[in-house]
Design brief:
Elements lengths: L1 E6 L1 H13 L3 E7 L6 H7 L4 E3 L14 E5 L7 H5 L5 E5 L11 H7 L4 E8 L9 E8 L9 H29 L37
Parallel strand pairs: 1-2, 1-4, 2-3, 4-5
Antiparallel strand pairs: 5-6, 6-7
Helix pairs in contact: 1-2, 1-5, 4-5
Length: 214
């Protein structure tokens, strides 16, 4: 199966490593210039690299079976999604549809959720709104509620949700290879969305749902 990965940082590198270990044909990677994880691993394996922000229908190679986002903040447009055989999947560190948005782990801590988790979902025009392919959960130790939310979120991501994401993606890829395509619609009744705490500008995700160009 031919896959294309858009991602960055350590998680992106681990997802690329997973795909290589599974014997998948990774035909390209889109990542920030100088990325020392997924970028370095792609270069070592002679995988073509496209700088972040440049991925679209024209720049993505043809014949791709599956697209994967791994800690990617690039928006994958409609034509780019439809260029692949199966579509695109991504990992979000929450039990979707709860805590959509960029800082989902931090908001789980801020809201003192007893349980959180991870979701592999199929990308669509919305932000973290696509059908669910696979999920898992974990408990949040109450000790994290006594810490700074950003610090607690970093630990929960690193120690629990990041490795969970790799395992979930592996499971979904195996399902797809076996012809088992799972798509479960998100229940909008339980959906929440919280703004990013990392930027000063007002973030308006609904604007990204307007399909324009590629």
């Amino acid at each position: 199966m031919k896959v294309y990965i858009s991602g960055q940082k350590y998680f992106g590198g681990e997802v690329l490593r997973l795909c290589l270990n599974m014997g998948l044909d990774v035909v390209g990677v889109c990542c920030p210039i100088g990325d020392k994880y997924i970028g370095r691993l792609a270069a070592l394996n002679n995988i073509p690299i496209l700088p972040s922000g440049m991925l679209n229908y024209d720049t993505m190679p043809g014949g791709v079976d599956l697209g994967i986002t791994a800690h990617s903040f690039d928006y994958i447009g409609k034509m780019t999604r439809y260029k692949t055989k199966h579509g695109w999947i991504g990992y979000h560190p929450s039990l979707l549809p709860r805590h959509r948005g960029r800082c989902s782990v931090e908001w789980a801590v801020r809201m003192r959720d007893a349980i959180t988790g991870g979701s592999v979902f199929w990308l669509n025009a919305g932000i973290d709104r696509g059908d669910i392919a696979k999920q898992d959960f974990c408990f949040i130790d109450p000790k994290f509620f006594l810490m700074k939310p950003t610090e607690a979120a970093s630990i929960i991501w690193r120690d629990t949700l990041l490795p969970m994401g790799v395992i979930l993606l592996e499971g979904v890829i195996k399902d797809i290879l076996g012809g088992n395509i799972v798509r479960v619609k998100q229940n909008e009744i339980h959906s929440t969305w919280e703004p990013s705490t990392e930027v000063n500008d007002i973030y308006k995700p609904d604007l990204l749902m307007i399909e324009m160009g590629k």
